């Protein structure tokens, strides 16, 4: 963590220094070797900032760095003046994974539309697109299984871990409605958990009962039913109020 903090400070200093470069201050359209070199340096710094944000597990820093980097990929004037980046496909895949992690399907598809054909066809991006399709159709087990095929995307482990947690919660929600209970072995397989300890931790979080080698989802269902009953009882005064308001309105109409 100490090394990450040191690198982060160095990158922040670099970003501040970039702002002061005369070649950039004159504007990205300036046609000079110095300007092109400054633009290339800026793109590289922002690409490193994204990698650092992922390693630090900082979603906010990732979003800010991507906002600074994206124009270097999508602005036609900049793209013409700079050589293609070897990092674009993998970093674009990371950004798409981030959007899946925060459940932003609309933005996911908007970003997908901005990608040129050669980047869209890159294996890293295609794997994320396939994963998104499985999530949209509710194939959560296939999505969890696909996680293993995405580990070859550089620096993807952070987002894959968060996405696995999100998908596992969806699977848990479906499982408790589909089954009254499951054996612990079945629950471990369905939820793709690695150990009994992980299953017990998830059971504690959701209020499930593990007994005699089975996971009983009924406890959570009972809590949901009690909460729904409480909500219905709490809404009764509101219904009475509405009825009274309608009565007053009718009285007013009669008087007028």
From TrEMBL:
Superkingdom, natural source: Eukaryota
Gene Ontology CC terms: cytosol; nucleus; proteasome regulatory particle, lid subcomplex
InterPro entries on file: 26S_Psome_Rpn12, CSN8_PSD8_EIF3K
Keyword flag GTP-binding: no
GO biological process terms on file: proteasome-mediated ubiquitin-dependent protein catabolic process
Keyword Nucleotidyltransferase: no
PANTHER family: 26S PROTEASOME NON-ATPASE REGULATORY SUBUNIT 8
Protein name: CSN8/PSMD8/EIF3K domain-containing protein
Organism encoding this protein: Prototheca wickerhamii
